[in-house]
Amino acid sequence: MAAVPAPERGLTMPGDTSWFMRDRFGMFIHWGLYALPARGEWVRTTEGLSDVDYQRYFDRFDPDLYDPAQWAANARAAGVRYVVITAKHHDGFCLWDSAQTDFKSTNTPCREDLLRSFVDAFRAEGLRVGFYYSLLDWHHPDFPVDAYHPLGGGVAKRMIEGMGEEFSFETLAALPEDIRKRNEDRDIRVYAAYVRAQVRELLTGYGRIDVMWFDFSYPGAGGLPGKGKDDWESARLLELTRELAPHVIVNDRLDLPADHADVHTPEQVVPKEWVRVDGTPVVWEACHTFSGSWGYHRDEASWKSPQQLVRLLVETVACGGNLLMNVGPTGRGTFDRRALDALACYGDWLRLHGRAIYDCTASELTPPADCRYTQRGDRLYLHVFAWPCGELSLGEAAGRVAYAQLLDDASEVPLVDSGRALKLPVRRPDVLVPVVELFLRTDAP
Ligand code: GLC
């Protein structure tokens, strides 16, 4: 029996992760000017768009159908318990009326402080609100051009295209000379102060914010032009964040030692066991997309199937983590049909199976083949990925179960062979992932 690790590091951190580890399921929202090109949130870099090129989206950003109350209702119906929205993404565009910049929603045809109505609507639905804040900023004049920057001479583009192939860091380090020169006028100190001023606005102007999701660091190594804690002045930024919002959960992308983060955020991965950092189990949250891009992408064909979506949630909680599932709203301000359908998969499944997710965590018991366990106290939830014909042997849980039922309809599942196996119905329940609720014996030795 593998012991369930207590994520000591997270629990002793300043940020309040107690609600977070119960809520388990959140919604990520990537929304900004990049919804208009509809080719992903990295479009400026992947296509090497200049400020002038990108201006056409700023001039036409007019999400006339934006209805945050509707978004919040959709989120609630999908079963999420918290939301993290991109206050600013790498393009530098701000969804709020920041006093630090003109590059904000209130100066587009939309004219609105989009975060204001957003936080009000989500709170009204009883959901906690977090802000994603990009450390990168491709619009700010003091942000030095680097390999990821749209003006980086296509280095990032070549890198993205070259992913999977053999790739040499020399190409990345070889930023064209004229770009290096252009950087002489850019002062990262000015930018770091801008970041602090904006974070202050976000943490003081919008009520209680529960998560600050900074993204991301790519420190230099061996000539690689990157940015990290010295550029963002991360220690100061974190200090400010904790001072303004002592309860706020801060993620791990500031390039500070791992023990400075309340939550660790592996991206687009399904861990096979509780996530550890330097050998220590941590509070963790995996973020995923429905298709591939985070920002709205019209033409992507790689949408996950309903079953994959639900399995992602199960596999995450079965390893003691949270799932932050992303929606990229359109330029009209709507969740498109594909996103709504995907959300409905979660909503429908969680309506019947929420008991196996919320407030649950990894189990100490090893599940049978093609199954996952989640657990809350003496309730053990057996998520059956491949429905067997007839009996399912309980393995480690043999003899420890007092009663078993299907979770979708509370119909009894008989225990057979002195509690060593379950007698499953031949017909697999018609749900995306069937769950058997096992009532563990409390009198067990
Ligand atoms: C990456 C991407 C970014 C996305 C984020 C979500 O860091 O740069 O576009 O917002 O992942 O985790």
Descriptors:
single chain; 445 residues; 16 strands; Immunoglobulin-like; 2 domains; elongated; 4-stranded antiparallel beta sheet; 7-stranded parallel beta sheet; TIM Barrel; 14 helices; binds alpha-D-glucopyranose; alpha/beta
What would you say this structure looks like, in words?
Helix 5 packs across helix 6 (114-124). 28% of the residues lie in helices and 16% in strands. Strand 14 (415-416) and strand 15 form a beta hairpin. With 445 residues, it is α/β, with parallel strands linked by helices. The chain is built from 14 helices and 16 strands. The chain has helices spanning 8-11, 18-23, 43-46, 51-58, 68-78, 114-124, 155-162, 169-173, 177-182, 188-204, 229-232, 234-244, 306-318, 337-353, and strands at 25-29, 82-88, 128-134, 211-215, 249-250, 276-277, 280-281, 285-288, 322-327, 371-376, 379-384, 391-393, 401-406, 415-416, 421-423, 435-440. It has a 7-stranded parallel β-sheet. Strands 10-11-16-13 form a 4-stranded antiparallel β-sheet. The longest helix has 17 residues, at 188-204. The chain folds into 2 domains: 20-356, TIM Barrel (Alpha-Beta Barrel); 371-440, Immunoglobulin-like. The mean pLDDT is 93. Alpha-D-glucopyranose (GLC) is lined by residues 30, 41-42, 215-216, 267, 287, 294.
